[in-house]
Design goal:
This protein is α/β, with parallel strands linked by helices. It is built from eight helices and seven strands, in the order αααβαβαβαβαβαββ. The chain has a single domain, classed as Vaccinia Virus protein VP39 (Rossmann fold), CATH 3.40.50.
């Protein structure tokens, strides 16, 4: 996905990218390439692939929740910053917390945040399950992308979510995981409000976004 196609596909989602956002995304890509030679951040490093499989894919969270509103978002197991950094660039009113267990990745994310001049975004060096125990009911939205199986994710993501807030994992094919999660969802007083399935442009790889609402503690 070249940059022109990226801009057009994002526009189809209802988002107009400013020159500042495009500069930040480009600089993010440059930093990703630079630091990927020092630490293992991603296997996807070719520019067109990064814009499709990392940048565009991250923005598709907008399909299920209005990210233009001011809200608190936690990205657990953020890795190289997907989707959290991309969401902060494209939806600057979000308050973002990036959680990752590897200090080298956290150090990289802090450099990205400083280089891009991002505000109201912080990094946390912690295992997601430990962070959840210490920060119950803190976020409007908790999300993650391709981190673990859905039943595992539920156990340390739902505690972070405010009542009537959302846990929105971003997956590939997830039908088996959804079925396996139903007993746990009932136990944790949560409901699947929406399952959004679609294919990425160009390569048509399948994506599933699961919108789970936390009803009560």
């Amino acid at each position: 996905m070249d940059k022109e196609l990226f801009i057009n596909e994002v526009k189809k989602l209802g988002i107009d990218l400013s020159d500042k956002m495009l500069w930040q995304l480009n600089r993010y890509f440059e930093l990703l390439c630079e630091w990927n030679e020092k630490i293992n951040l991603t296997r996807i490093i070719e520019e067109n692939d990064v814009y499709l499989k990392h940048f565009y894919d991250s923005i598709t969270l907008f399909k299920t929740v209005d990210l233009c509103k001011k809200m608190s978002v936690c990205d657990i197991g953020t890795g190289a910053g997907f989707p959290g950094i991309v969401l902060k660039i494209v939806f600057p009113t979000l308050s973002i917390t990036l959680v990752d267990a590897l200090l080298k990745r956290i150090n990289f994310l802090n450099i990205v945040i400083e280089e891009l001049g991002l505000q109201d975004i912080k990094t946390v060096h912690a295992r997601a399950e430990d962070y959840a125990k210490e920060n119950p009911s803190q976020f409007d939205v908790v999300t993650c992308r391709a981190v673990a199986s859905l039943p595992t994710l539920l156990t340390y993501s739902i505690p972070l979510v405010k009542i009537n807030g959302y846990f929105i994992p971003m997956k590939a094919n997830a039908s088996d995981e959804i079925l396996a999660s139903k007993p746990l969802l009932r136990k944790m007083k949560c409901e699947i409000e929406e399952i959004m399935e679609f294919d990425l442009p160009i390569e048509n790889s399948h994506r599933t976004i699961i919108k789970i609402v936390k009803k009560r503690k």
